[in-house]
Amino acid sequence: MPKISKKSAVKFNVISHLAVIAGLAVLPFIIENPYYLGITNLILIYTILCMGLNLILGYTGLLSLGHAAFYGLGGYATAILMTRYGFSFLPALIISGLLALIFGMLLGVPTRKVRGDYFCLLTIAFGEIFRLVAQAWIPFTGGAMGIVGIPIPRIFSWTIRSETDFYYLGLILVVFTYLSLVLLTASRFGRAFVAIREDELAASVMGINTPAYKILAFSIGSFYAGLAGSYLAVYQTTITPSSFRLDESCLMIIMVIVGGMGSLLAPISGVIIMTLATEAFRSLADYRMLIIGVIMVTVLLFRPQGLFGTAAFKD
Amino acid sequence: MFLLETRQLMKHFGGIMAVNEISLSIEKGEILGMIGPNGSGKSTFVNLLTGIYTPDKGQTIFKNQDITTLPVHRITEIGIARTFQNLRVFQNISVMTNILIGRHAQIHNSLWEVYLRPLSAWKREKAAREKALEFLELAHLTDRRDELAKNLPYGEQRLLEICRALASEPELLLLDEPCAGMNPVEMDTLAEFIQRIKASGTTIFIIEHNMRFIMAVAERIVVLNMGKKFKEGSPLEIQSDRGVQSIYLGEEEDV
Ligand SMILES: Nc1ncnc2c1ncn2[C@@H]1O[C@H](COP(=O)(O)OP(=O)(O)OP(=O)(O)O)[C@@H](O)[C@H]1O
Ligand SMILES: [Mg+2]
Fold it and tell me: Which numbered atom of ligand 1 lies nearest the CA of B227?
């Protein structure tokens, strides 16, 4: 078998990375149309969410159906901090991520030793409790009407106002998410997550404190959802509980599964397909979930590991 | 000097006394064998030593430390590694990564270093990879490092599982029926491998059904029967022992 020399492989790698970066940097000038740019920004949000979820689901094998709640935590945290307490965007963003991380830990501690299916049920319960609290605690969250008039975000002297501005903010967050996950998954921590997914007992015999690592994966994955929520708050300038329902969590899981679990970039393909599909069938509101389901089943019939995935659901 | 000692270790499942007051010691540097009919409690005994089960009664002492109630990962950290009777390599992961996971307890990067000092974390990773290659070399698996574990032939998967255990640099290695499913050629490779592990200073405890193998490899043998320690002695003594022959013959008459 002819082997490509290591040097030229590295060169190719560098060039293809640069090409992707250049393409992403000029994308708003190619798309221009604000409607399509809006969809692109939605794709960026779901990319952050699904990369985080992939750490939990694809790497560690934990089925979390509460991802939308952590997304919502970040959204409400930013909305409340910026409208009521005069926080500027950057600190609100960081606090939103950390809050989701802390709630991930709080939920992770009692569920660290329960079996997978119970963990899944508990995350559903958490998601529902979050949504009910958001709806009922009117003085704090604005109830079903939510919080409106979230100020225009500024980072130092950069005012983020147009779709293009939000595109670049989203892109920065996606790049941050990706790079930080590269560092994590290439370390002994990332390997420990994968070991837990493959065989939890064997993982513990390797010296991995499996309950602690499950909490870690779950809270770090939730951290990114908090960031995405913060972005959503300033992007929409309003935040309502209906954005964080259970079907939103399901949609993210479907995106990860369709794109492929267990490799960092694979979920992006699922995000793009599913976001475009939901947009295309927006007029068929009632049948949207049906169409999404059909797409998922079709993909999984032909590729059980998802489009670009390395890990399939265990049998 | 003993490296590990059990004192009246006991474990029952419902009405079954799987391990019934077993006291034995493993000497530093030796290869201790354990045999016994099916269901005599051998695997349960190893599960008790490694913290997978907690004994109902009794104690385990390792390097003068009571490890009876330590969690599984702590026991690995202080120097006991093991393989499983029913082979538990990480199937969908490369051979190299299997070894690196086995080395988890020896790679000391903290989360802080992973994120904020990636260069020094990466250097430790690189060192870990080089070390992992040494273990693969021991079992002649270096060429296989990039393959998924499930694509290896069965015998090599068994060797990989031993390498993965060795990667944590244990003082005591527990092997639960390493020969199961191997052909005679693979068994010879394994026997030679075990001798090399011993030569590197690791103490070894082997459970094995294959008499020819265990008699050739072990220096001392413990026989279990129905959860109890039945006999202990050199391979020659065990081989010629009437009682031992009768429990095995009894088993064959049952079949
Ligand atoms: N988790 C468990 N739950 C219930 N019973 C168990 C459990 N593990 C082992 N046993 C029982 O305990 C007894 C000892 O089993 P063990 O697996 O230790 O035997 P063994 O000597 O390893 O046998 P083999 O040679 O077949 O591997 C058996 O009767 C078995 O059925
Ligand atoms: Mg057994």
Answer: 14
CATH number of the domain residue B236 falls in: 3.40.50.300
Residue B177 CA, ligand 2 centroid: distance in Å = 7
- Model confidence, pTM: 0.91
Among partner residues A186, A192, A310, which is closest to B104 by beta-carbon distance? Answer: A192
Residue pair B152/B125 in contact by the 8 Å Cβ criterion: no
For A29, which DSSP code?
A: H
Q: Which of B163, B162, B175 is nearest to B209 (CA)?
A: B175
Average pLDDT taken over every residue of chain A: 88
Q: Taking residues A297-306, report their average pLDDT.
A: 82
Q: Is B93 on the interface with A (CB under 8 A)?
A: yes
Q: In terms of DSSP bridges, do strands A154-155 and A158-159 run parallel, antiparallel, or are they unpaired?
A: antiparallel
Nearest alpha carbon to residue B171 among B95, B79, B83, B76: B79
B66 strand-pairing partners: B61
Q: Taking the domains of chain A in order of start, what are their residue ranges?
A: 34-245
**What is the count of structural domains for chain B?**
1
Whether B11 is in the pocket of ligand 1, judged by its Cβ within 6 Å, is: no
> Is A191 in Cβ contact with B104 (below 8 Å)?
yes
B18 touches chain A (CB under 8 A): no
Could you tell me the two tokens for B254?
């049952």
pLDDT tens-place string over residues B122-131: 889 899 999 9
pLDDT in tens, B165-184: 999 999 999 999 999 888 89
Q: How far is B17 from chain A (nearest CA, A)?
A: 23
B122 assigned to some structural domain: no
User: Is residue B138 situated within a structural domain?
Assistant: no
With a pLDDT cut of 90, the percent of chain A lying above it is: 51
> Torsions phi, psi of B60, nearest 5?
-120, 125
**Distance in Å, alpha carbon of A186 to nearest chain B alpha carbon:** 9
Q: Which domain holds residue B62?
A: 2-79+170-249
- Domain for residue B151, yes or no? no
Name the pairing type of β-strands B220-225 and B31-35: parallel
